[in-house]
């Protein structure tokens, strides 16, 4: 399976409370809202976005361009009730040879603690195993990011270990807790 070929026609998904779909230019205001929040950005590898132009040039326009070649697996998480983009989830990295991908997600702080990311990533995981024919999906979070840890555990991921001081983020080396779900766990 060639992952990029499958991502060119990135599908949309619908859950009880959410729609997952491709990001578009009209999502800029909503994405900037959570990208500019210091509490949201704290655990992320990217810095707080200071302007909408920064969000547009460093994320939205890049994702839209990469959709054309299957180099982006980014979904907008749309809250059905408000029709607002409240976050994103994606495969941030993948390997065709090893049939694996890394999942990532971010959510507007106003929607934390409601199980919305878990609801969203379950659809992405299903897509990864059933359509992309992945064998493994992994994720990681800072050791103090309890919310992200809960999301992965709720979605069926298993804790594998902690990588010590493996990433240099915002001026410091940070430890990363690593989780994974494999095809046999899912089916």
Task: Describe it.
The protein has a single domain (3-134), classed as Gcn5-related N-acetyltransferase (GNAT) (Aminopeptidase, 3-Layer(aba) Sandwich), CATH 3.40.630. Helix 2 crosses helix 4. The protein has an eight-stranded mixed sheet with strand order 1-2-3-4-5-6-8-7, sandwiched between helices. The longest helix is centred in the first third of the chain and has 16 residues, at 52-67. The protein is 33% helix and 34% strand. The mean pLDDT is 94. The protein has seven helices and eight strands. By secondary structure, the chain is α+β, with helices and mostly antiparallel strands. The protein is globular and about 40 Å long.
Which helices and strands appear, and what pairs or packs with what?
Elements: H1 3-7, E1 13-14, E2 18-22, H2 28-35, H3 38-41, H4 52-67, E3 74-79, E4 84-95, E5 100-107, H5 116-130, E6 136-142, H6 146-154, E7 158-169, E8 172-182, H7 183-186
Parallel strand pairs: 5-6
Antiparallel strand pairs: 1-2, 2-3, 3-4, 4-5, 6-8, 7-8
Helix pairs in contact: 2-4
What is the CATH third-level topology name? Aminopeptidase
CATH superfamily: Gcn5-related N-acetyltransferase (GNAT)
Task: Give the proportion of residues in helices.
Answer: 25-40%
Number of strands: 8
Just name the CATH architecture.
3-Layer(aba) Sandwich
Regions with little confidence, pLDDT below 50 for 5+ residues: none
Strand content: 25-35%
Under CATH at level 1, the class stands as: Alpha Beta
What is the tally of helical segments? 7
Helix/strand-derived category reads alpha+beta
Rounded to the nearest angstrom, the radius of gyration is 16 Å
